[in-house]
């Protein structure tokens, strides 16, 4: 009968602990027994088995039984854990550095401003009629060269010509649906050429826009030519065209934000009118440092006349009315240009005396009068 000794929780043999044989003596005996010398015991004791296992572990090469590290072995897990700790430490230090440089990132997330800024970037649907109120408040962020529309309601507006929506055409009086659709497209082309064309914006002659106007309209062609060649503070081309002095300022990027609407209505007998109301937001910079948004609102009514009743070119546009409102600019458009006023600039020209207005509010018509101030940019 064989008696098996039990192991306690520490993994030690009680009988082996009471024997007086040392590890070295027992190991020598086992070596002689393996070589066939000496008398081998009928059954090795628990201590003998423990020492044998210890010697075997010392002689085995690393990994001989453990398998490749990193696949669930103790050594692999230890190195993996150390790697994870190092990575987490690097990420933590980088996060602290980012917070030190841009603390508003954390503050905005805690206060909910991050979500508000994300909502402020969602594009608005097309405008089908004049708004009844000014745009709501947005986070008062300052514009930057990388984000020139930060802190502006225009951030949610369409880019460039995409903001000049054309309504669905219907027949009006003497003009069939197809002619109305063609007239709407010509109006859109004029607005693009007068306010978005890069050549026009840098002060060149707005040839593409002028080509869409009826040369037979009394006085208008001559007046526009005078605006372009001999501008004055009151009569200048910025009443109809957006022009900047390239020696003074440059655009920030190539995006101009636009929002507005147009509609068709019947005028006098033989006249169809296209009424437009659009606001253009131009980010400009001086010296490549600060950014100022020039906001230009235009209300223009175009007429298309029946050549059978009027002396007119039925394929050209006539100007019935045009009004302009320019914000964040000097009061006088000297030299036929719009002059953006930057916060660091000293006041030049006529000082504003009119009331403060919201340049993004298009719920009412453009009001004439003295040059005023704006409530936001």
Plain-language structure description:
Keywords: Membrane, Transmembrane, Transmembrane helix. The chain crosses the membrane at residues 83-101. Residues 1-20, 54-78, 344-377 are annotated as: Disordered. Residues 345-358 have a biased composition (Low complexity). The chain starts with 13 loop residues before the first helix and ends in a 50-residue tail after the last strand. It has helices at residues 14-18, 23-34, 46-59, 74-101, 104-111, 113-119, 177-195, 198-201, 207-210, 220-229; strands at 158-159, 250-251, 257-266, 271-286, 290-305, 318-327. It is an alpha+beta fold and 377 residues long. The chain folds into three domains: 14-57, no CATH class; 76-115; 140-336, no CATH class. The model is unreliable at 1-19 and 60-77 (pLDDT under 50). It is elongated and about 130 Å long. Strands 1, 2, 3, 4, 5 and 6 form a six-stranded antiparallel β-sheet that branches. 29% of the residues lie in helices and 15% in strands. The chain contains ten helices and six strands, in the order H-H-H-H-H-H-E-H-H-H-H-E-E-E-E-E.
């Amino acid at each position: 009968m064989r008696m098996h000794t039990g192991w306690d929780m520490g993994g030690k043999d009680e009988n082996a602990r009471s024997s007086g044989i040392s590890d070295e003596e027992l190991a020598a005996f086992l070596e002689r027994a393996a070589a066939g010398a000496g008398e081998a015991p009928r059954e090795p004791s628990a201590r003998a088995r423990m020492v044998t296992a210890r010697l075997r572990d010392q002689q085995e090469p690393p990994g001989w039984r453990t398998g490749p590290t990193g696949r669930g072995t103790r050594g692999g897990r230890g190195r993996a854990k150390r790697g994870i700790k190092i990575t987490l430490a690097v990420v933590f230090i980088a996060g602290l550095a980012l917070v030190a440089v841009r603390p508003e990132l954390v503050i905005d997330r805690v206060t909910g401003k991050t979500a508000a800024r994300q909502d402020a970037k969602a594009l608005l649907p097309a405008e089908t009629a004049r708004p009844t109120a000014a745009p709501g408040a947005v986070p008062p962020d300052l514009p930057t060269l990388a984000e020139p529309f930060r802190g502006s309601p225009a951030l949610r507006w369409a880019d460039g010509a995409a903001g000049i929506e054309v309504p669905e055409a219907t027949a009006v009086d003497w003009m069939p649906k197809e002619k109305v659709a063609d007239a709407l497209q010509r109006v859109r082309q004029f607005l693009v050429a007068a306010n978005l064309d890069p050549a026009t914006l840098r002060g060149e002659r707005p040839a593409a826009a002028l080509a869409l106007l009826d040369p037979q309209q009394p006085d208008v062609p001559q007046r526009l030519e005078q605006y372009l060649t001999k501008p004055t503070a009151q009569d200048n081309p910025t009443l109809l065209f957006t022009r900047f002095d390239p020696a003074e300022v440059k655009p920030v990027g190539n995006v101009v934000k636009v929002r507005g609407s147009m509609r068709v209505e019947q005028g006098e007998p033989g006249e169809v009118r296209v009424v437009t109301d659009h606001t253009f937001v131009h980010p400009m910079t001086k010296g490549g440092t600060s950014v100022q948004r020039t906001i230009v609102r235009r209300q223009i009514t175009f007429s298309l006349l029946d050549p059978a009743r009027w002396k007119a070119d039925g394929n050209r546009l006539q100007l019935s009315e045009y009004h302009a409102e320019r914000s964040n600019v000097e009061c006088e458009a000297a030299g036929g240009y719009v002059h953006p006023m930057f916060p660091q600039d000293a006041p030049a020209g006529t000082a504003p005396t009119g009331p403060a207005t919201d340049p993004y509010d298009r719920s009412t018509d453009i009001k004439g009068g003295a040059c005023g101030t704006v409530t936001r940019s």
